[in-house]
Amino acid sequence: MIQIDLSKKTILLTGASKGIGAAAATFLMQNGAQLAVHYNSNKTAADALIAKFPETNSKAFQADLQEEEAVVSLFKAVEAHFSKIDVVILNAGVFLKHPVQDPLKTWYRTWKQTISINLDAVGLLTKLGIDHFLNRGEGRFIYIGSRAVFRGETEEYLAYAASKGGMVSLARSVARSFGKKNIKSFVVSPGFTRTQMAEQFVETYGEERILNEIALNELTTPQDLSPLIGLLCSGLMDHATGATIDINAGSHIR
């Protein structure tokens, strides 16, 4: 029997107060992990999540990932509080609609906001994580990607697809460049997942269209991703470093 014991793991999880992040945080703490629960605005949800698992000594940390200094301060605060970080899970992201019919300035403003959160912040946290892991002698990154990288996205979400494409290339480069230094890097690539972030897509296209795209009879939920994330954190899948693992209900099979 495979048992996921995370009792000796300290994990920084961005975007942990809702959606995929909240489900993953719950699973990780259930299995003993000490968590740095990052949130932007929903302090109540972050605190409530931690309160369910007081034995883990987890803690919530606020940061607006659009702000460079806030990103750096987040990592430094987590590092100072816990002394060591074993895993960085880069989950926080936005899925913002910006159809090409928008005026150029409006369209580009959304592009820049998406890239700043979904890719620039990820790059900064990767650099900070690499420095920390090199000093410690080991570490793991888990990047939450998207099927959009491999099959494309609708024209309203060009920035989202581009940002996730950059993230996946970054993750692979980290795996190839730092594997000999005992740093591993993985990508978990969801398809459409039933979260608050995805509601805008449902409102635009309807749930039936999404169901018609997948091979299963029900939409993926955040809880469907959590066991894999936990397994990657545990070290039991280290020889999959550099891999992208699809969880998209058969909507895109490579």
Question: Topology, please?
Answer:
Layout: E1 10-13, H1 19-30, E2 34-39, H2 43-51, E3 59-62, H3 68-82, E4 87-90, H4 104-136, E5 139-144, H5 148-151, H6 158-178, E6 183-190, H7 199-205, H8 207-213, H9 222-234, E7 244-247
Parallel strand pairs: 1-2, 1-4, 2-3, 4-5, 5-6, 6-7
Helix pairs in contact: 1-9, 3-4, 4-6
The total beta strand count reads 7
SSE string, helix = H, strand = E?
EHEHEHEHEHHEHHHE
Described by its quaternary structure, the protein is single chain
Sheet-strand content, in percent, reads 5-15%
Shape category: globular
Q: What's the story with the biggest beta sheet?
A: 7 strands, parallel
